Amino acid sequence: MDDPRRKVPRTDAVLTDPRLAVGLTRLGHPLVKRTVMQVLDEVRRGELAADTVVDTVVERLPATATGLVAVLNATGVIVHTNLGRAPLSQAAREAVLTSAGYTDVEFDLVTGERAPRGQSTVAALAAAVPDAEAVHVTNNNAAALVLAATALAAGREIIISRGELVEIGDRFRIPDLLESTGARLREVGTTNRTHIDDYEAAINADTAFILSIHPSNFTQSGFVASVPVHQLATLSAPVVHDIGSGLLTPHPRLPDEPDAATSLKAGAALVTASGDKLLGGPQAGLVFGHTEPVNRMRRHPLARALRVDKLTLAALEATLTGPPAPVPAAIEADNTVLAERAQRIATVLRDNGVKAEAVACRSRIGGGGAPEVTLPGTAVAVDAALARPLRTTRTPVIGRVHNGRLLLDVRTVSATDDDALTDAVIAAAKATPCA
């Protein structure tokens, strides 16, 4: 018998097939060639027929030249760290595309001279929090805190409650972060209770500032006590408040989550926050506060290493000035509307032979914000056996398994993606007979 491997086409012959011309132009030769070689290996192993090589390559070519894959977040966790935190609004996405080419990021089109970097973004940030005398942007909130400690406290002391020496993820810890700047930590209070006189007794000539950190990824209850910013502001040292999740003004659904405007009104000299959590924008560190400390941070040499690029500036400005981003929209979504969407999806799935029903569920904020808050929602419940097939479809769908069923929470799925979600479940069910 003829060895089927003799029928395997040469790599260069496949690459010259006209059907791959568009992919080569869009994705580049190396990526397409890598896909061709992977498919040819499957043919050599007898897993594919030789006459299906080109069609298989076309089918497997990615949508873009990045290894990142777009997914549908049906977990019900609005700010999902493992899925990239906040999804950008359409306005922010368009702003990123516009800024991807040459832009006037540091250029004045009227005078023809150099201009302050990202001045329209800075203006939008200042307008969003009028209580701030000055604002600044870094590449994330940890960077904002490091810059504050370096510019304001290197070689001096930062007073912090022992109950706020938190770990922020991936085993990075606030005390390690701060001490790396050359500042010294003066710990006060205990794990569960810290009082204003603990701070007052610790203030000395070497004190740079009091740091108040919102423990945004956990809660304490029971015999606990902490000192709010408005009380700390009565002491003789400036207060830096790390609010974490990036709420700029109070939100009725997040009553216990601190916000930048309220903290500044309470007397904080500086407030730091994340841009890619509750604000719903790109990854960025947001700094609000008094002019003098913000300017010291802005002009410190480390600020250059922590500055953001033009894409972030564009996305942040569009998030601040454009229509509501997906994160705040998901938080404010009406459960009646969510229930109607889930019912429609479940009905279509049943009509296509998939066991499905709309069920009540609880959604979460996620991303280290409002850990105690859950939101009433509605999910589409399907067989848990579909979890893995849905993760490996061309547009992966990520849900959560609960009580033996896979829940697809529509709160974190855009209504414009309902059809894509439905089609993915139907396709996964057909490929999984046991479901």
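the 2nd protein, sequnce then structure:
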Amino acid sequence: MSMMSRVAQGIVIAALGAALLPPSAAADSTSQEVLYGVGSVTSTLVYAPVKASFCILGAVTSGFTLPFGGPRTAEKVATTACGGTWAITPDALRGKDPVRFVGGSSGEPSRGRAVSK
């Protein structure tokens, strides 16, 4: 295994281990805050390039969608691909904040809905 894949495995294992701690063991001590901070930074270092690649792919797809679907459809494609969570926070590792890989425009639900005419 390469060094990068071992580092990624270690990050995932540490994040899962921190998330599985029982609430009594997860008292907010200084050392745990530091561990959550380190986990947040290292998780973001792995997650952000993947998210950026997905956003770039969405932007390219949006460009192909523009002539056929119009500006609103192209905007929805780009917003869905580039929206969502960009950084893994300590609260996300604790399970308090959701991590959304894809996102919609603000105020609009992420799942489809019927439009009546």
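The two ends are 57 Å apart (CA to CA). Helices lie at 3-19, 30-82, 90-94.
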